[in-house]
Amino acid sequence: MRLRESGEDYLEAILVLQQERGAVRAIDIAEHLGVTKASVSKALSTLEGKGFIEVVKRDVRLTEVGAQVAHEILERHVFFRDLLIAAGVEPELAAEEACHMEHCLSEDSFQKLKAHMA
């Protein structure tokens, strides 16, 4: 099931926050993404309805499928960020632009580009 770019950003944020902090709450996601708690609440409801996350009390957890998608998005982000930094782009700008780039290629094109760069 394909997600919108914003849904992928939420899954990536949840994964990054889990790696940094362990437990993730909606307020953590809002702060990380710079969005309102209301926006997070709506997004989490959508992601939960699609089976990508589960919310237990205040703890937001990726499901197996959600974790797989989040890891794929994070891999793309890191790949493009590192590529841009290696090309001389300032790290902050590279991270921002990588966030856009991670969503625009098909999986096949990404894998071929990654293999070509190896």
Textual characterization of the structure:
The chain has 118 residues and is mainly alpha-helical. Helices cover 70% and strands 7% of the residues. It has 2 domains: 5-65, Arc Repressor Mutant, subunit A (Orthogonal Bundle), CATH 1.10.10.10; 69-117, Orthogonal Bundle (Diphtheria Toxin Repressor, domain 2), CATH 1.10.60. The chain contains 6 helices and 2 strands, in the order αααββααα. Strand 1 and strand 2 (59-62) form a beta hairpin. The longest helix has 23 residues, at 64-86. 23% of the residues are buried. The model has no long low-confidence stretch (mean pLDDT 93).
Task: Record the SSE blueprint.
Layout: H1 5-21, H2 26-33, H3 37-49, E1 53-56, E2 59-62, H4 64-86, H5 91-101, H6 107-117
Antiparallel strand pairs: 1-2
Helix pairs in contact: 1-2, 1-4, 2-3, 4-5
Features:
single chain, 2 domains, 70% helix, 118 residues, 7% strand, mainly alpha, Diphtheria Toxin Repressor, domain 2, two-stranded antiparallel sheet, Arc Repressor Mutant, subunit A
**How far apart are the first and last residues' alpha carbons, in Å?**
29 Å
Low-confidence stretches: none
CATH architecture of the largest domain: Orthogonal Bundle
Q: Could you tell me the mean pLDDT?
A: 93
Domain HTH dtxR-type: 3-63
Protein name: Metal-dependent transcriptional regulator
Pfam family, one: Fe_dep_repress
GO molecular function: DNA binding; DNA-binding transcription factor activity; protein dimerization activity; transition metal ion binding
